[in-house]
UniProtKB/TrEMBL annotation:
Gene source species: Carassius auratus (Goldfish)
Subcellular location: Nucleus
UniProt xrefs under Gene3D superfamilies: Cysteine Rich Protein
A Pfam family annotated for this UniProt entry: LIM
GO biological processes: muscle tissue development; sarcomere organization
CDD domains assigned: LIM2_CRP (cd09403)
Subunit structure: Interacts with ASCC1; ASCC2 and TRIP4.
Signal peptide: none
Entry GO MF terms: actinin binding; metal ion binding; structural constituent of muscle
Purpose: Could play a role in neuronal development.
Protein's UniProt name: Cysteine and glycine-rich protein 1
Location of the LIM zinc-binding domain: 7-67, 116-176
UniProt KW keywords: Acetylation, LIM domain, Metal-binding, Nucleus, Phosphoprotein, Repeat, Zinc
Length: 192
């Protein structure tokens, strides 16, 4: 501890006494000097971000030193028109939007106007009514066993040759046949 009672404040350079001291990155600050360099908000150990010898709140630090560009917004769904000039950031020139000339549309765009086709009815399947199973997209109302019509879930189906079946119908029609395969007292009976 230097002569004169305490360490020097990292902000105002005056003596900091024990009762009013806040330490950060090996430096001492007065509680009243422990403020963001940009917005002047009070800081604490959970809200401080340090860059070299400067202290910032996490929001200002992110605006000044964080990633830039699309997708790196202010959080919580906010749209900010702040260019960062108050932080010493030079605003980038506005670039106009232009369409791409990509001759290869995505697999999603190649299908009927951007939607999948239900293998059962042949109609377009949109996201609100889509169920995926057996490697295809189905309407909720078409997602039924091809034999008995039982409603299915993606975990309770078996598929063969592009058609979907409940496990009972699949076992009965495509499973092993003969003595010991499903025609006894312990077998699962499936009535149609």
């Amino acid at each position: 501890m230097p002569l004169g009672g305490g360490n020097k404040c990292g902000c105002c350079k005056k003596t900091v006494y024990f009762a009013e001291e806040v330490q950060c990155e090996g430096q001492s600050f007065h509680k009243s000097c422990f403020l963001c360099m940009v917005c002047r908000k009070n800081l604490d150990s959970t809200t401080v971000a340090v860059h070299q010898d400067e202290i910032y709140c996490k929001s200002c630090y992110g605006k000044k030193y964080g990633p830039k560009g699309y997708g790196f917004g202010g959080g919580a769904g906010t749209l900010s028109m702040d260019t960062g000039e108050a932080l010493g950031i030079k605003p980038a020139g506005q670039t106009s939007h232009r369409a791409t000339n990509n001759p290869n549309p995505s697999k999603f765009a190649q299908k009927l106007g951007g939607s999948d086709v239900c293998p059962r009815c042949g109609s377009a399947v949109y996201a609100a009514e889509k169920v995926v199973g057996g490697g295809n997209s189905w309407h909720k109302s078409c997602f039924r066993c091809a034999k008995c019509g039982k409603s299915l879930e993606s975990t309770t189906l078996a598929d063969k040759d592009g058609e979907i079946y409940c496990k009972g119908c699949y076992a009965k029609n495509f499973g092993p046949k003969g003595f010991g395969f499903g025609q006894g007292a312990g077998a699962l009976a499936h009535a149609q």
